[in-house]
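Bench notes, bay 3.
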Amino acid sequence: MAAAGALRLLVPRGRLLPPRRGLRLSAPAAIQVTVRDALNQALDEELERDERVFLLGEEVAQYDGAYKMGFTGIAVGAAMAGLRPVCEFMTFNFSMQAIDQVINSAAKTCYMSAGTIPVPIVFRGPNGASAGVAAQHSQCFAAWYGHCPGLKVVSPWSSEDAKGLLKASIRDDNPVVMLENELLYGVPFEMSEQAQSKDFVVPIGKAKIEREGTHVTLVAHSRPVGHCLEAASILAKEGVECEVINLRTIRPMDIETVEASVAKTNHLVTVEGGWPQFGVGSEICARIMEGPAFNYLDAPAVRVTGADVPMPYAKILEDNCIPQVKDIIFAVKKTLNI
């Protein structure tokens, strides 16, 4: 089965700087790489590294997949047989057709076999709202899969997240659900020299502080992380310093990083594209309420979520169903009572 396409840089190679004192200095090592190319790089490297890794999914061979990257019952069986399949869903909305294999087979087999049968499989593909595809193609399944013991669930934002989490997921002996975002595939992010290494992985279960702050903690995953950073930049001009946490992993959740931040800022706002009821933000708020960080809160935690309705088709309604930067700013000001 053919591997996904090779890494493609979006910017020209760094030009050599003028020599100084006889030395030739190169441009900074960081490069701009899209999320799509970071995922392709991870797949190429892991296919080369381990002959047990292979790809399954619609059109992954001839057409490099529905989104130019890289079925479920076969994949689960292959994982139990010692292979390491990477199963691509064209969209996680279609994963409902395979929910029995994901939940009842992949997630539970290791436990039910007393640890004797590992299931090293990755289910990956676009998750959450896209653009103009209406209710049956615009749902976030982070809370659905995060609810189920036996699964690990990751949700990348940047190119480094995407590459590092995919490599870590493929190497993990547990079933991992990797929830990407279609609208991020073509977005370029700076990728450090370290992230360009074939040995680079992002640890599953560890959040990342994307921006330091002192007044309020913003916790998000996937595309809303970018919205939080944009809101933080706007609020900084008004003297409000937001600490932005990129959750990266839904299960196991790095609540310790969130607790440490809340202890510093004394305020919490969670942001997600999914529905409010039983959502990721609900879980974060509950665990802060039940833990030591609750004593540090100076105001109730606030959730910013998608609207509690099926996604409309009309663009103006769609925009109002997805958290926007202005919604985050409003929530922060409400929390800080300003």
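Next record in the batch:
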Amino acid sequence: MNHSSHPTGHMALLKKINQILLLLLVLTVCAILYNKVHQVPSALKNETVDLESPEEMEEEIPVVICAAAGRMGAAVAAISSIYSNTEANVLFYIVGLKTTIPHIRRWIENSKLKEIKFKVVEFNPMVLKGKIRQDASRPELLQPLNFVRFYLPLLIQKHEKVIYLDDDIIVQGDIQELYDTKLAPGHAAAFSDDCDLPSTHEMVRSVGMQNTYMGFLDYRKQAIRDLGISPSTCSFNPGVIVANMTEWKHQRITKQLEKWMQRNVEENLYSSTLGGGVATSPMLIVFHGKYSTINPMWHIRHLGWSPDAHYSEHFLQEAKLLHWNGRYKPWDYPSVHTDLWENWFIPDPSGKFKLIRPES
């Protein structure tokens, strides 16, 4: 009898061991599964955060364009040309005055531009109070939005690098290329030099245009002579800017520009001289010798300087960005190379903005 009960005890022990092993196995499998479910995704999640965020930040290209009353079609054509010629992730900052914002918003939302990423920013002209000297010869140059470029860091919060463009431009290249412009250490901005293109020199000579500091600042004034800038120094055009916001804030560029606006109100240092009004001159002073340069093909200018000034078609096709600076705008008449501009124009759904063309 004793003999027969022995195997039974043996079996019970084996069974118990098996149960424990099975339990351990189940626990191990559970632990593995738990880790798989809980840890791997969190590791993955960390990885995606690490991988994606900086890239997304880098890839968003902020482009600032003003939408002024009476010339909103210009902003629309500029935006349309940029958006159509790039795969980049562009975020448009469209800056307007309180009265014009609803119009530009409706225009975008009711046209093929409704696909774009954009923010509408209101510019308060009160910041200019007491800083602008009235200039009767070209009142359009005193429009508040001409000074938006002075206040970029106040309008654009989260970006390190920003592109500012005048509204009378068309972009034919990929805006990513312009955004990739290298700024030298310590430079808050890059501009186009007015002496950079042989083809523009011809144009400049033929229409008596200014491309030196002499054309913008009044060298009869002591304050200007005290700057020690030679009058024959080549000027630059601030209608296309690639700006570094960190440097801009660090160097207090906005404060410096305001200081020169204020001095001009008191001493008339530049507004009545020949050049492009009151927004260019303070920039020429503040950025003198402290700016990087933009590839010349990214700013072909003076298309609005004279209704008779023509560039060669081949040259204009090669150009990455066209700028109708001057009095003769492509939505107006007379003007030159209007076909290149009209390619990108989108009619105003409200019908308020109309192109001015000779009666056919």
